[in-house]
Design brief:
4 helices, globular
């Protein structure tokens, strides 16, 4: 949703943009800006924010964090980028297969990271 809003905001006053009643078609610049904004917001949340806070915004809200499987340490930039790209691959390839076959397959992280519940230190 953030990408669509940013895409609309960047193209709303350009020539050929939709009028107040939506009489005109949506310009290609809107879709391009939306795609770029969606990817930027996703990358910022899933990679950069996780690099700093050890969790994305959604994981922080639910008390989860991302750790390395090998030693339970902080995830590095390269692994987080790989995890972000794998998420796109997973949603494009495996989610439709799962829905079509009604399988019980679970997502496995392919870059040596896993999600765990944060522990509260006393």
């Amino acid at each position: 949703m953030g990408g669509v809003i940013v895409g609309y905001a960047t193209t709303v006053n350009t020539p050929g943009s939709p009028g107040p009643g939506g009489q005109q078609s949506v310009p290609p610049a809107f879709w391009a800006a939306s795609v770029v904004a969606v990817l930027a917001v996703s990358f910022t949340n899933q990679v950069l924010f996780t690099l700093v806070a050890r969790a994305s915004l959604g994981k922080l809200a639910t008390g989860l964090r991302v750790i390395r499987t090998s030693d339970e340490g902080r995830a590095g930039f390269v692994r987080l980028v790989g995890r972000w790209l794998f998420g796109f691959f997973w949603s494009i390839v495996f989610v439709p297969l799962h829905l079509a076959t009604d399988s019980n397959v679970e997502q496995q992280d392919a870059v040596g990271l896993r999600i765990v519940r944060r522990t509260v230190r006393s």
